[in-house]
Amino acid sequence: MTAALIDGKLIAARLREEVARGVKARVDSGKPIPGLAAVLVGENSASQTYVRSKRKACAEVGIESFGFELPATASQLEVEELVMRLNADSRVHGILVQLPLPEGLDDERVLNAVGLEKDVDGFHPVNIGRLGMKGRAPLFVPCTPAGCMVLLEEAGAKFEGADAVVLGRSNIVGLPAALLLIGRSATVTVCHSRTRNLPEVCRQADILIAAVGRPEMVKRDWVKPGAFVIDVGINRVEDPGSKSGYRLVGDVAFDEVKEVAGAITPVPGGVGPMTIAMLLKNTLHGAELADAR
Ligand code: NAP
């Protein structure tokens, strides 16, 4: 059996077009241009790259982006004061604080300072709490897990009553992914570094979301025939044959798992492009929330 490929690049491109149309419609009707503030503290080169690509994606759909760079020596108070200023800035409808913050800064306090209505990353504890509570809706859902759900829907997954396994329990991916699946009435098992019999647990899954950060950990015999497999992992592995000396692989051994899965995301080109597309969608939503205030 060969799995259907879930093309995140294509689905994300469609979403971005939708956002671009939404932004244009707003601007044509005289409403403010949606604005995203990107806060970068320190000089982590991966973070710089992420922020650059998020700002470029904003420009492509007509969202205005504002970059704020603070040195790694910035104090907790300075970072929180910047966030408070952005909370009060009417041009800004979404605030993104690029993680990880440099050592010594408390990311929990910084994320708590982001106004709920501008929390486009969906990391504020109140938004996460609402995601987990029956009958409550968060203002924003974290971008990566929200993107995973769109990919599953597009691939035709049925959630109600399905056995879903989420590998990983991080605040930004695993935990919210599990909450989203529960919200769609799947029966959810969350695995982590202390889980026993991991292959056996994963083999029960109709839907498997892998977010562990371990290159190609999920093997063919971990996957139920016909399962939907979403690979969130982005891992660099050495590849002397390539120009850069490395290549990117996911948490799933793609070549072997595609032989048993029903549908699978590639890495790159699966979840990655969806994360940015969902951020754009959330920023447009932030502007709509501001209209209603
Ligand atoms: P994280 O914060 O490091 O969390 C990893 C999770 O995996 C933890 O819950 C950990 O368990 C679990 N884990 C680690 N090793 C394990 C093992 N051997 N067996 C079972 N569970 C294990 O990572 P993250 O931020 O969620 O990211 C996960 C991966 O997704 C990374 O490769 C990251 O680069 C990628 N990512 C991609 C995107 C995207 O846009 N595509 C976005 C975010 C992250 P414990 O809790 O017990 O430690």
Tags for this model:
293 residues; alpha/beta; 6-stranded parallel sheet; 3-stranded parallel sheet; 10 helices; globular; binds NADP nicotinamide-adenine-dinucleotide phosphate
Bound molecules: NADP nicotinamide-adenine-dinucleotide phosphate
Q: What Rg, in angstroms, do the CA atoms define?
A: 19 Å
Order of helices and strands: EHEHEHEHHHEHEHEEEEHEH
Enumerate how many helices there are, as a single number.
10
| Biggest sheet descriptor | 6 strands, parallel
- The overall average pLDDT, rounded, is 97
Spatial sequence of strands, sheet with the most strands: 1-11-8-7-5-6
Q: What is the share of helical residues?
A: 40-55%
In terms of DSSP E residues, the strand content is: 15-25%
Choose one word for the global shape: globular
Structural class estimated from helices and strands: alpha/beta
